[in-house]
Design a protein that fits this description.
Largest sheet: 3 strands, mixed
Helix content: 55-70%
Distance between the termini: 49 Å
Number of strands: 8
Structural class: alpha/beta
Radius of gyration: 23 Å
Number of domains: 2
Number of helices: 12
Shape: elongated
């Protein structure tokens, strides 16, 4: 119960939602707004409670017009299974919410019109969040899939670029079908801004990913995946090949011949503590 209350204290209303609240009040859609806020809050509680069950550090949860954004103090070093469950926990809340609404309607507690509105709002939030656009839940699912195929940096960049392309398509659809829908323009603005900020800060996010690995805040790895490297490669080039969900034993080659092995922590120590970012990896064989 204490953890649930502490999680509720981390909720806050994003300025965009305040704008939508003002519009709803002015246009006499207050009841619809209350239903939407309940749905969004439960959706985000799903993410937050699942994250807490894995002892993730939840910083804050922003409520937005179309859902929310749960900000975690985690930087890509949890297992991909955990990350998948945390992401999926939000959309799954709509299953029991719709079921509960149906039961209340069948027992006469909720009118048919109210249930229709409740169902419509649930489906709207669910389907919108499943769009494969970062930072929506669907975009995070795409990111997790790409993380199984590529290194951290490439997977993150591909996620953002793919999301931007899909957002442009979504933008064109809005222009063609609902050009005067103010809420959609608010959402589009938020998504464009989020993608722009994350693209600008992608190197910073990558450094946090490496620092978290270096300080060992998470020991959860799916597997050991040896990473063959050339002795002439610089340390910065090698760490850019690190992948989420795995730990990399480094096998050093020189002209096609194996000359030694390094642990990824040795490379990270040289990178952060010794500032040897441009040093050759084969030089570390003589240090450790």
């Amino acid at each position: 119960m204490t953890s649930f209350i502490s999680l509720l204290k981390k909720f806050y209303i994003h300025p965009l939602l305040w704008l939508v609240i003002a519009i709803a009040i002015m246009t006499a859609h207050f009841f619809e707004l209350i239903l939407l806020l309940v749905i969004i809050t439960i959706h985000e509680l799903g993410h937050g409670l699942m994250a807490q069950s894995f002892s993730w550090r939840v910083k804050k949860i922003a409520l937005l017009p179309f859902g929310g954004v749960a900000e975690m103090d985690e930087h890509g070093n949890r297992s991909l299974r955990e990350e998948f469950l945390v992401v999926a926990a939000g959309p799954l809340q709509h299953v029991w919410l719709i079921g509960l609404g149906w039961v209340l309607m069948r027992t006469g507690v909720m009118s048919h019109d109210t249930f229709s509105l409740f169902l419509q709002l649930n489906m709207m939030v669910l389907l919108f969040n499943l769009l494969p656009i970062w930072p929506l839940d669907g975009g995070k699912m795409v990111s997790l899939w790409l993380a199984t195929k590529f290194n951290y940096m490439r997977a993150y960049e591909y996620t953002l670029l793919f999301s931007f392309g899909l957002l442009l398509v979504f933008h064109l659809i809005v222009l063609a079908t609902a050009p005067l829908h103010l809420n959609l323009w608010i959402v589009l603005s938020f998504l464009y801004f989020s993608l722009w900020v994350d693209w600008k800060q992608r190197r910073y996010a990558f450094m946090k990913f490496l620092l978290e690995r270096y300080y060992g805040k998470s020991r959860q790895f799916m597997e050991l995946r040896p990473l063959p490297i050339e002795g002439e490669e610089s340390i910065i080039t090698v760490v850019e090949r690190f992948q989420r969900g795995v730990k990399h034993p480094l096998v050093v080659f020189d002209k096609g011949v194996e000359v030694g092995k390094l642990d990824e922590n040795e490379l990270l120590h040289a990178f952060f503590a010794e500032k040897m970012t441009s040093a050759k990896t084969k030089d570390l064989l003589y240090l450790y």
